Task: structure prediction
Amino acid sequence: MADFYVQRGDLATQIAEKLNPDPLFGEPSGLFLAAPRRTGKSTFLRRELVPLLQSQGKFTIYCDLWSDRDADPGALIAKALADALGELATTKEKFWDAIPFDSIGVGGVSVALRDSDAKKSGTFSDVLIEIGKRADKDVVLIIDEAQHALRSAAGTDAMFALKAARDAMNQRDGGARLSLIFTGSHRDKLSGLVIGHTQPFYGATITDFPKLGRPFAEAVVTAFNPRLAADNQLSADDVETALTLLGHQPEPLLRLVRETALSDEGSAGLSSAVRDRAVDMRAARWAQHQSDYGALTDVQRAVLRQLIEDGEKFAPFAEGTLASISKTLGRDTDTREVQRALDALREKSLVWRPSRGIYALEDQDMREWLLETQLG
Ligand SMILES: Nc1ncnc2c1ncn2[C@@H]1O[C@H](COP(=O)(O)OP(=O)(O)OP(=O)(O)O)[C@@H](O)[C@H]1O
Ligand SMILES: [Mg+2]
Result:
């Protein structure tokens, strides 16, 4: 079972359909898909969505902003565009000479396309229009872990440049169109791109990317059961429960099933042993949250609770927010105290701040824990 893989063709079809240019059914501002870490986003994009889009005659470009954490996100996108142009160059003679620019620039970073004395820089619009023209196809650009764009000024500029390119290509009569797909491992983090009129994709909506569920559990059962004793088989219900408890992540689930099948524990009642161990694993995770939370000051706790309750709408210094935090604390608080609490939460890696004024919870599992045990 070197490559245990569960196909998700229906999901790919569904998402590809959303790129429809029809303003009533499509998502003209771009698709924003969010799902927690290690739940299969990138695998889906590479193994399902990209091949499907290509079979539908689109030219696809994939860029993972997490592929190199030291690189500027703006430069990573520029590099992906340069590579895409390069890919087209191999099929066309003297291609480079026909391109009216020799580097791609965004927000102060620049990626060279070739050695040249003449320094003419192209914008993302120039480059994407050129790509569409050369490929003679509509272009789909997929930015994985898009929330990282907000880490740098050039990354943020790159997002604005992509929006400008999309408008330039889609608001003309002919020529290739551009569709943008952004994915992120955190809904609140991704919302940094769409919330607030100063953000590049203001007004766009973020969709939860569907998690692996019942079909995945069934595939696990189908793959494992033929190798297990006839009187000690896995049930899809138990595997599905375990998958949910493990945050819908395939890796720990498969490890757990393998280990349990090989251990004494699974020798009688493998299926329930898998489920029980998943319950224990979640309990251990939650004990960690309990201990992290227990170590916070009252203000830090109140601020964290407020952030979790408000989610993407969290506005730390708004009057209503301060009033609500004061109420939780049972005394008045002010912006300085809240700011200090947020700084401390960031230092403890519980809270993430991609850019000024935007805060998000680092670990979504903590939200579940808090909602279930503290706020319920
Ligand atoms: N459909 C699937 N069938 C089987 N295994 C899968 C499937 N999708 C993902 N996986 C496995 O789950 C793991 C995580 O997948 P992937 O890296 O795609 O997730 P991700 O959400 O992009 O993670 P990250 O947050 O690290 O970027 C990988 O080991 C991958 O092989
Ligand atoms: Mg990924």
About this structure: The longest strand covers residues 178-184.
